[in-house]
Protein backbone atom coordinates (compact mmCIF):
# COMPACT_ATOMS: atom_id res chain seq x y z
CA UNK A 1 0.00 0.00 0.00
CA UNK A 2 2.78 2.45 0.92
CA UNK A 3 4.60 1.78 -2.31
CA UNK A 4 1.39 2.35 -4.28
CA UNK A 5 0.89 5.72 -2.58
CA UNK A 6 4.54 6.59 -3.15
CA UNK A 7 4.32 5.68 -6.83
CA UNK A 8 1.16 7.74 -7.29
CA UNK A 9 2.82 10.75 -5.65
CA UNK A 10 5.88 10.44 -7.88
CA UNK A 11 3.67 10.29 -10.97
CA UNK A 12 1.79 13.36 -9.79
CA UNK A 13 5.01 15.28 -9.17
CA UNK A 14 6.42 14.33 -12.55
CA UNK A 15 3.17 15.46 -14.16
CA UNK A 16 3.29 18.79 -12.34
CA UNK A 17 6.93 19.33 -13.29
CA UNK A 18 6.17 18.69 -16.96
CA UNK A 19 2.72 20.18 -17.48
CA UNK A 20 2.24 22.75 -14.70
CA UNK A 21 5.69 23.86 -13.44
CA UNK A 22 4.23 27.13 -12.13
CA UNK A 23 2.42 25.16 -9.40
CA UNK A 24 5.75 23.74 -8.18
CA UNK A 25 7.00 27.27 -7.47
CA UNK A 26 3.77 28.82 -6.22
CA UNK A 27 4.90 29.40 -2.63
CA UNK A 28 7.53 31.86 -3.91
CA UNK A 29 4.63 34.30 -4.37
CA UNK A 30 4.42 34.72 -0.62
CA UNK A 31 7.68 36.66 -0.74
CA UNK A 32 6.08 39.33 -2.95
CA UNK A 33 4.00 41.52 -0.63
CA UNK A 34 2.78 43.78 -3.44
CA UNK A 35 1.39 41.00 -5.58
CA UNK A 36 -2.33 40.39 -5.90
CA UNK A 37 -2.32 36.62 -5.46
CA UNK A 38 -4.87 34.76 -3.37
CA UNK A 39 -2.95 33.90 -0.18
CA UNK A 40 -5.32 31.13 1.00
CA UNK A 41 -5.02 29.45 -2.39
CA UNK A 42 -1.24 29.76 -2.35
CA UNK A 43 -1.03 28.33 1.16
CA UNK A 44 -3.37 25.47 0.28
CA UNK A 45 -1.36 24.71 -2.87
CA UNK A 46 1.84 24.82 -0.86
CA UNK A 47 0.53 22.48 1.86
CA UNK A 48 -0.83 20.01 -0.67
CA UNK A 49 2.31 20.05 -2.78
CA UNK A 50 4.55 19.64 0.25
CA UNK A 51 2.57 16.66 1.57
CA UNK A 52 2.73 15.00 -1.83
CA UNK A 53 6.50 15.59 -1.91
CA UNK A 54 6.89 14.17 1.61
CA UNK A 55 4.87 11.11 0.61
CA UNK A 56 7.05 10.61 -2.45
CA UNK A 57 10.39 11.18 -0.72
CA UNK A 58 9.89 10.14 2.90
CA UNK A 59 7.47 7.19 2.74
CA UNK A 60 10.12 4.96 1.12
CA UNK A 61 12.47 5.77 4.00
CA UNK A 62 9.89 4.89 6.65
CA UNK A 63 8.68 1.58 5.18
CA UNK A 64 10.61 -0.56 7.73
CA UNK A 65 9.06 1.37 10.63
CA UNK A 66 5.53 1.14 9.21
CA UNK A 67 5.92 -2.57 8.54
CA UNK A 68 7.05 -3.16 12.09
CA UNK A 69 4.19 -1.04 13.42
CA UNK A 70 1.77 -3.11 11.32
CA UNK A 71 3.15 -6.28 12.94
CA UNK A 72 2.85 -5.03 16.53
CA UNK A 73 -0.70 -3.75 15.97
CA UNK A 74 -1.92 -6.92 14.23
CA UNK A 75 -3.76 -8.19 17.31
CA UNK A 76 -5.20 -4.96 18.73
CA UNK A 77 -8.65 -3.49 18.31
CA UNK A 78 -9.07 -0.70 15.73
CA UNK A 79 -5.71 -1.59 14.27
CA UNK A 80 -6.43 0.10 10.94
CA UNK A 81 -7.39 3.32 12.71
CA UNK A 82 -4.18 3.12 14.75
CA UNK A 83 -2.11 2.82 11.58
CA UNK A 84 -3.89 5.74 9.91
CA UNK A 85 -3.40 7.88 13.03
CA UNK A 86 0.27 6.94 13.19
CA UNK A 87 0.89 8.03 9.59
CA UNK A 88 -1.26 11.16 9.95
CA UNK A 89 0.83 12.27 12.92
CA UNK A 90 4.00 11.58 10.96
CA UNK A 91 2.83 13.78 8.09
CA UNK A 92 1.71 16.54 10.43
CA UNK A 93 5.23 16.77 11.87
CA UNK A 94 6.63 17.23 8.38
CA UNK A 95 3.95 19.80 7.57
CA UNK A 96 4.96 21.71 10.70
CA UNK A 97 8.55 21.69 9.47
CA UNK A 98 7.33 23.04 6.14
CA UNK A 99 5.56 25.99 7.77
CA UNK A 100 8.74 26.92 9.63
CA UNK A 101 10.76 26.61 6.41
CA UNK A 102 8.18 28.69 4.55
CA UNK A 103 8.33 31.47 7.14
CA UNK A 104 12.12 31.53 6.83
CA UNK A 105 11.81 31.50 3.04
CA UNK A 106 9.49 34.51 3.07
CA UNK A 107 11.89 36.38 5.37
CA UNK A 108 14.88 35.58 3.18
CA UNK A 109 13.13 36.74 0.04
CA UNK A 110 11.95 39.89 1.73
CA UNK A 111 15.61 40.64 2.46
CA UNK A 112 16.52 39.84 -1.14
CA UNK A 113 13.82 42.18 -2.38
CA UNK A 114 15.33 45.02 -0.35
CA UNK A 115 18.84 44.55 -1.76
CA UNK A 116 19.80 44.94 -5.40
CA UNK A 117 23.06 43.11 -4.72
CA UNK A 118 21.21 40.08 -3.36
CA UNK A 119 18.66 40.15 -6.17
CA UNK A 120 21.53 39.58 -8.59
CA UNK A 121 22.79 36.67 -6.51
CA UNK A 122 19.71 34.68 -5.51
CA UNK A 123 21.70 31.48 -5.93
CA UNK A 124 23.17 32.26 -2.51
CA UNK A 125 19.91 30.94 -1.02
CA UNK A 126 20.53 27.50 -2.47
CA UNK A 127 24.22 27.74 -1.54
CA UNK A 128 23.21 28.44 2.05
CA UNK A 129 20.78 25.52 2.08
CA UNK A 130 23.49 23.18 0.75
CA UNK A 131 25.92 24.42 3.39
CA UNK A 132 23.42 23.94 6.23
CA UNK A 133 22.59 20.46 4.99
CA UNK A 134 26.27 19.60 4.86
CA UNK A 135 26.88 20.80 8.41
CA UNK A 136 23.79 18.91 9.60
CA UNK A 137 25.28 15.63 8.38
CA UNK A 138 28.02 15.90 11.02
CA UNK A 139 25.88 16.82 14.04
CA UNK A 140 25.15 14.48 17.00
CA UNK A 141 21.42 15.06 16.38
CA UNK A 142 21.64 13.54 12.92
CA UNK A 143 23.60 10.53 14.15
CA UNK A 144 21.18 9.89 17.01
CA UNK A 145 18.09 10.20 14.84
CA UNK A 146 19.53 7.99 12.12
CA UNK A 147 20.27 5.26 14.67
CA UNK A 148 16.65 5.36 15.83
CA UNK A 149 15.33 5.21 12.28
CA UNK A 150 17.59 2.30 11.32
CA UNK A 151 16.32 0.16 14.19
CA UNK A 152 12.50 0.24 14.17
CA UNK A 153 12.31 -2.84 16.39
CA UNK A 154 14.16 -1.11 19.23
CA UNK A 155 12.21 2.11 18.67
CA UNK A 156 8.84 0.37 18.97
CA UNK A 157 9.96 -1.78 21.89
CA UNK A 158 10.84 1.38 23.77
CA UNK A 159 7.97 3.67 22.79
CA UNK A 160 4.98 1.63 21.57
CA UNK A 161 1.75 1.76 23.57
CA UNK A 162 -1.76 0.66 22.63
CA UNK A 163 -4.55 3.08 21.80
CA UNK A 164 -5.19 5.79 19.23
CA UNK A 165 -3.74 8.57 21.38
CA UNK A 166 -0.59 6.51 21.87
CA UNK A 167 -0.42 5.84 18.11
CA UNK A 168 -0.60 9.58 17.47
CA UNK A 169 2.16 10.24 20.00
CA UNK A 170 4.28 7.50 18.43
CA UNK A 171 3.76 8.95 14.95
CA UNK A 172 4.81 12.37 16.22
CA UNK A 173 7.91 10.91 17.84
CA UNK A 174 8.85 9.01 14.71
CA UNK A 175 8.27 12.13 12.62
CA UNK A 176 10.51 14.17 14.89
CA UNK A 177 13.30 11.62 14.53
CA UNK A 178 12.89 11.72 10.75
CA UNK A 179 12.99 15.50 10.72
CA UNK A 180 16.01 15.36 13.01
CA UNK A 181 18.05 13.32 10.54
CA UNK A 182 16.66 14.63 7.23
CA UNK A 183 15.81 18.31 7.80
CA UNK A 184 18.93 19.52 6.02
CA UNK A 185 18.35 17.43 2.91
CA UNK A 186 14.69 18.41 2.79
CA UNK A 187 15.71 22.05 3.20
CA UNK A 188 17.77 21.69 0.04
CA UNK A 189 14.70 20.29 -1.69
CA UNK A 190 12.66 23.20 -0.37
CA UNK A 191 15.19 25.67 -1.79
CA UNK A 192 15.28 23.95 -5.18
CA UNK A 193 11.55 23.37 -5.58
CA UNK A 194 9.43 20.30 -6.31
CA UNK A 195 9.87 20.80 -10.04
CA UNK A 196 13.44 19.43 -9.85
CA UNK A 197 12.71 15.74 -10.23
CA UNK A 198 16.32 14.54 -10.52
CA UNK A 199 17.24 16.31 -7.28
CA UNK A 200 14.25 14.63 -5.63
CA UNK A 201 15.37 11.21 -6.88
CA UNK A 202 18.96 11.75 -5.68
CA UNK A 203 17.99 13.05 -2.24
CA UNK A 204 15.40 10.30 -1.76
CA UNK A 205 18.03 7.67 -2.56
CA UNK A 206 20.46 9.23 -0.07
CA UNK A 207 17.85 9.37 2.70
CA UNK A 208 16.70 5.80 2.05
CA UNK A 209 20.22 4.43 2.33
CA UNK A 210 21.12 6.54 5.36
CA UNK A 211 17.92 5.65 7.24
CA UNK A 212 17.29 2.02 6.32
CA UNK A 213 20.61 0.36 5.44
CA UNK A 214 23.49 -0.64 7.72
CA UNK A 215 25.97 0.95 5.32
CA UNK A 216 24.04 4.20 5.67
CA UNK A 217 26.24 5.17 8.59
CA UNK A 218 29.25 5.18 6.26
CA UNK A 219 27.44 7.40 3.75
CA UNK A 220 26.65 10.27 6.12
CA UNK A 221 30.07 11.93 6.16
CA UNK A 222 30.76 11.68 2.38
CA UNK A 223 27.32 13.16 1.65
CA UNK A 224 28.06 15.96 4.10
CA UNK A 225 31.35 16.74 2.38
CA UNK A 226 29.70 16.76 -1.07
CA UNK A 227 27.00 19.13 0.17
CA UNK A 228 29.55 21.46 1.75
CA UNK A 229 31.65 21.46 -1.40
CA UNK A 230 28.61 22.12 -3.60
CA UNK A 231 27.45 24.93 -1.33
CA UNK A 232 30.91 26.51 -1.30
CA UNK A 233 31.28 26.26 -5.08
CA UNK A 234 27.85 27.73 -5.74
CA UNK A 235 28.34 30.45 -3.14
CA UNK A 236 31.69 31.51 -4.56
CA UNK A 237 30.28 31.40 -8.10
CA UNK A 238 27.49 33.74 -7.05
CA UNK A 239 29.74 36.09 -5.10
CA UNK A 240 32.21 36.55 -7.94
CA UNK A 241 29.74 36.47 -10.81
CA UNK A 242 28.75 39.84 -12.31
CA UNK A 243 25.07 38.79 -12.23
CA UNK A 244 22.93 35.77 -11.47
CA UNK A 245 22.20 33.16 -14.08
CA UNK A 246 25.38 31.11 -14.40
CA UNK A 247 24.51 28.23 -12.09
CA UNK A 248 23.26 24.85 -13.18
CA UNK A 249 20.38 24.61 -10.70
CA UNK A 250 17.84 27.40 -10.48
CA UNK A 251 16.21 27.84 -7.05
CA UNK A 252 12.42 27.72 -6.92
CA UNK A 253 11.94 31.45 -6.37
CA UNK A 254 13.12 32.52 -9.84
The description of the largest β-sheet is: none
Proportion in helices? over 70%
Average predicted local confidence, pLDDT: 84
Which structural class matches the secondary elements?
mainly alpha
Q: How many domains is the backbone divided into?
A: 1
3D structure, described in words:
The protein has one domain (2-240). Helices cover 78% and strands 0% of the residues. The protein has 11 helices and no strands. The longest helix is centred in the middle third of the chain and has 35 residues, at 79-113. It is mainly α.
Short characterization:
The protein has helices spanning 2-19, 21-24, 39-72, 79-113, 116-119, 123-136, 140-150, 152-159, 164-192, 197-212, 216-240. With 254 residues, the chain is an all-alpha fold.
Question: How are the elements arranged and paired?
Answer:
Elements (H helix, E strand, L loop, with lengths): L1 H18 L1 H4 L14 H34 L6 H35 L2 H4 L3 H14 L3 H11 L1 H8 L4 H29 L4 H16 L3 H25 L14
Helix pairs in contact: 1-3, 3-4, 3-10, 4-9, 6-9, 6-11, 7-9, 9-10, 10-11
